[in-house]
Amino acid sequence: MLNQDTKIYDMKLNKAIMKNKLHRTSCIEKAMQTVEFMVSISEASKIWLAGHSAGSAVAMLAGKNMAKRGNLLGSYLFNPPFVAAPTKRRHLVATCLITAALTLLIRNNQDMQHLDILFSDLSMWVPNLYIHPSDPICSGYIRYFKIREKMERHGVGRLERLAPPYSLKGLLMKAFGKDYCSEELHLIPSACVTTSCSSFLQAHGLDQWFGDDTVSDPVVHCYN
After folding, report:
1. pLDDT for res 102
2. Where are the bilayer-spanning segments (predicted)?
3. CA distances in angstroms from 75 to 43, 91, 96, 130, listed in the order given
4. What is the 3-state secondary structure (H, E, C) of 30-49?
5. How confident is the model at residue 165 (pLDDT cuts 50, 70, 90)?
6. How far apart are CA 103 and CA 2, in angstroms?
């Protein structure tokens, strides 16, 4: 199904995802038009979003946009991109705390308050994420939810809740007056996560999710 034109377009789409600019692409504009039309002629409960890799990023953004309007669409996102550099868990804790501290410093900013409300509103939307721990494209979600649970257990959950809507990069650019969409695509409040223990060679593949022998039971992570 791939040809030279689609490969070039996919490269541009991947670049937009990496730079957190998917919301500015014609792809998401067309996707939103289609989803909005389907919701207008049917019930939201009858519509599912699905995608793999870059396609799951498009589906995720469409799902987030619809959830903000009160339409919670069933979403099945296979190997969705988590745009963050791989790092050790203790570094994630430090990043989370620094992000929370920066949020406290500038959260009186109107944009920050707006994002707080949006993230709380999004908590009712629980997309289904299918993640392979060895897939560098999506495995960040596993660390993302584990670190939230760990901080809850250590009694600093209230501080950690300040950080999720924002990225450290986004907050720093915002603090210095730079134009940046600090609502990162991959940051979501809630999800139902299913993992796979298939081989490393299949880590980013779609076929692995069609078998029962390597797929775990789903685990729900809720934002309170």
Report:
1. 55
2. none
3. 15, 30, 27, 11
4. HHHHHHHHHHHHCCHHHCEE
5. very low
6. 43
| Model pTM score | 0.77
Q: How far apart are the first and last CA of the chain?
A: 43
Number of domains in the chain: 1
Structure tokens at 199: 């081989």
Q: Which residues of 167-203 are buried (b: 16+ CB within 10 A; e: fewer)?
A: bbbbbbebeeeeebbbbbbbbbbbbbbbbbebeeebb
Task: Say how far apart CA 187 and CA 72 lie, in whole Å.
Answer: 17
Task: Count the Cβ atoms, other than its own, within 10 Å of residue 78.
Answer: 24
Torsion of CA 97, 99, 103, 109, to 10 degrees: 180
Where are the extended beta strands (E) located within the chain? 48-52, 74-78, 128-131, 191-195, 219-221
- Residue type, position 155, single letter: G
Residue range of the domain that includes 81: 1-224
Higher-pLDDT residue of 38 and 108 is: 38
Q: Please state, in angstroms and rounded to a whole number, the distance separating the CA atoms of residues 124 and 72.
A: 8
The helix/strand/coil state of 24 is helix
Residue type for position 169: K
The per-residue pLDDT for range 132-152, each reduced to its tens digit, is: 999 999 998 988 888 777 766
